[in-house]
Design brief:
The chain is of the alpha/beta class and about 425 residues long. The protein folds into three domains: about 120 residues, Methylthiotransferase, N-terminal domain (Rossmann fold), CATH 3.40.50.12160; about 230 residues, pyruvate-formate lyase- activating enzyme (Alpha-Beta Horseshoe), CATH 3.80.30.20; about 55 residues, no CATH class. It is built from 13 helices and 20 strands. Helix 6 packs parallel to helix 7, helix 7 runs parallel beside helix 8 and helix 11 packs parallel to helix 13. It is globular and about 60 Å long. Bound molecules: iron/sulfur cluster.
Length: about 425
């Protein structure tokens, strides 16, 4: 397979980005060449997201363009979206030559060989596997300096609107040895930077007697030795424990940012969403966070237009973020996904016009709160981490991140991610700034 050149494009969340690392390692170990340029590829793998209803459209568009440019290129669609695909999809999307589900990445080399040999139009799906690919260490970390390690996959919460429990299965976690081996590979390539521990429910991590707080302390210790910072996502308001908060508070290099999605300020909507908490319980968690880690940047999500959401429900969401004033609010509109509880039990009865209107109101509120949060940091001396350097119109720029920097899948970089003019000597380096 030495002569087969493979291009990979990733869409969606950090989980998909981590899966791309695993696919790269499997293919390199099998002798395939990875290329960064689709024009020189024999096969293009499109690692595609299922979270939004239209998430796959951009990947299909890419497949069309690839085929227009290079008629002999073969295309593979994988990622969590692959779980939703059947043979009818392949018949109506002829620019996709094969589909590989997330549990079947070990079969990627065989799939590519079949394609190169001329076999097309098939799905590779290992239904009973819950493979975490633990022993496959990444060969290249693609997201330098923000590198991600998968702690686990799957989610048992089964929120009514969410496709992830269907596409990613039940919760399962990698062991601490695997996490430490991944860190070794990562720091062998680059010291410093930000290491993000990724899982659908990181606080529920439990493997061989090690819980998330214990793991976080071990990872922080190792990262400290390599001048790196640690963060994690996502957390759930009902499982984000005092033990984890104490670990954050004790470890100087664990970033002061937590993603605690609230989704709605209405108990009726939260109940229909099956989120597993009330507004009062959510606020109790926020109180604990602020008592133990007063400098924590709390990032939350508000979903507008969920099935049955009334004007009054929506107003309660806006009032809630006004009340607890998170550092960042990600606002998005509900879109119905098949294979979810909401699809079976509810009607998507909030019109697109109303969703747009509510999005606008929530955005404006979120932006105002965000500005106030940022202004409150003026005059404070903070540590920053330098990130990637780039050149535009002959001028050098460097990304820098502070300890409350947040980066959520599907959003633009936010938090204190600044771009400064000039080169800061080293990438992934720590320095101090007066804001
Ligand atoms: S907690 Fe809910 S929204 Fe998050 S991954 Fe699990 S089911 Fe989906």
């Amino acid at each position: 397979m030495k002569d087969t050149r493979v291009f990979i494009q990733t869409y969606g969340c950090r989980m998909n980005a981590c899966d791309t690392e695993i696919i790269c390692a499997i293919l390199r170990n099998a002798g395939f060449s990875l290329v960064h340029d689709s024009e020189n590829a024999d096969v293009a793998i499109l690692n595609c997201c299922s979270v939004r209803e239209d998430g796959h459209i951009v990947a299909l568009d890419k497949a069309l363009k690839l085929k227009q440019f290079n008629r002999s290129i073969k295309t593979v669609l994988c990622g969590c979206f692959a779980k939703l695909v059947d043979s009818g999809f392949l018949r109506s999307n002829t620019n996709i030559d094969a589909v590989v589900t997330p549990e079947s990445y070990r079969e990627m080399p065989g799939t590519l060989s079949r394609l190169v040999a001329g076999d097309i139009g098939f799905i590779v799906s290992n239904e009973i596997s819950d493979d975490l690919y633990q022993e496959i260490l990444p060969i290249e970390y693609l997201n330098i300096p923000n590198r991600a390690l998968i702690l686990g996959k799957g989610c048992n919460q089964k929120c009514a609107y969410c496709i992830e429990p269907y596409t990613r299965g039940a919760e399962r976690y990698v062991n601490l040895d695997t996490v430490m081996a991944n860190l070794d590979v990562l720091f062998h390539r680059h010291e410093g930077g930000i290491v993000t521990l990724v899982g659908h429910m990181v606080d529920r991590y439990m493997c061989a007697g090690v819980n998330f707080a214990m793991l976080l302390r071990e990872v922080a210790k190792e990262c400290e030795r390599h001048n790196a910072w640690v963060k994690y996502l996502s957390s759930h308001p009902m499982t984000y424990s005092d033990e984890v908060l104490s670990a954050v508070s004790d470890c100087d290099n664990v970033m002061r940012v937590v993603h605690l999605p609230v989704q709605s300020g209405s108990n009726e909507v939260l109940n229909r969403m099956r989120r597993g908490y009330t507004v009062e319980q959510y606020l109790e968690t926020i109180g604990r966070v602020r008592a133990i880690c007063p400098d924590m940047n709390i990032v939350t999500d508000i979903m507008v237009g969920f099935c049955g959401e009334t004007d009054s429900d929506f107003r309660q969401s806006v009032e809630l973020i006004e009340q607890f004033r998170p550092g960042e609010v990600n606002v998005y509109a509900f879109s119905m996904r098949s294979n979810t509880y909401a699809h079976r039990a509810y009607v998507d009865d909030v019109t697109e016009d109303i969703k747009r209107e509510r999005m606008q109101i929530a955005f404006e509120t979120a932006s105002r709160i965000r500005r106030e949060y940022m202004q409150s940091e003026l005059g404070i001396r903070q540590k920053f981490m330098s990130g990637a350097m780039s050149e535009t119109n002959g001028r050098d720029f460097t990304n820098i991140y502070n300890r409350t920097y947040s980066q959520r899948p599907g959003t633009r970089d936010c938090g204190e991610n600044l771009i400064v003019e000039g080169r800061l000597g080293l990438e992934n380096n720590l320095f101090t700034v007066d804001i």
